[in-house]
Amino acid sequence: MKLKKPIKLLLGVAVFVTLPSLLLFGFLYFKHHQELPSGSTGEGADNLATKMLVTLNYEAFTSTDCIEWTFKNKRHYKWERTKGTCDVLWKEYKIKLNLKNHADSKAYVHGFTIEGEMGSDLVEQAKCYFEKDVFWLIAPFKVFDQGVERKLATLENGEKGLLVNYNPDDTYVWTFDASGKPKSFYMWDSKTPIDGLEVSWSDWQIAETGVKLPTFHKFIFFGMEISDIKTY
Hints:
- The chain crosses the membrane at residues 9-30.
- Keywords: Membrane, Transmembrane, Transmembrane helix.
- By secondary structure, the protein is an alpha+beta fold.
- It has helices at 4-32, 43-55, 58-62, 116-138, and strands at residues 39-40, 66-71, 75-80, 85-90, 93-98, 106-109, 112-114, 149-154, 160-167, 170-176, 182-188, 197-200, 205-206, 212-213, 216-219, 222-231.
- The protein is globular and about 55 Å long.
């Protein structure tokens, strides 16, 4: 009988913590959830994708050898595209990723080489960070990559968008301003619990090589800042 009071207290805490979260998720789900629109492949989709690339100076992007940036003030990258390497720095760690031969990547802590299982884990973590964070910087430039499918779609508000399947599990619908520069995209991906969630692409910066890159994203009430952008 003495256990009843602690059990009731724990149940009360659990309800207090989970109920508001469930209510918030339900509100956000019904507010933002959208069905994936249909689209058609062909010249219309390719023309819209090409207009986006021209607006962002894709030619300058292809001639850029190195891009540096900081993601959310947490991780810094120096990506040498022509060499196929990237330095990833966070906290006390520095990982030199070899993007062409993963086995040649190196991990350092406070400047000291880390090998063995810990070194392998750090390299794998840096690889995951890079693949995730670089998408928020250069996703528009990947629309004509091998295996990527493009469709011309109509959104619920009647606006034309570019539906892009980067892979079978991740689909995005880009929206644009009058010049063809991306304003946002809607997400249907394996990592997002709400289908059709909109994320802004804004505060575009013209980097040293002439390529235009975003410095801010916003979804719901969260923001993602990209800073310290440099290109060579």
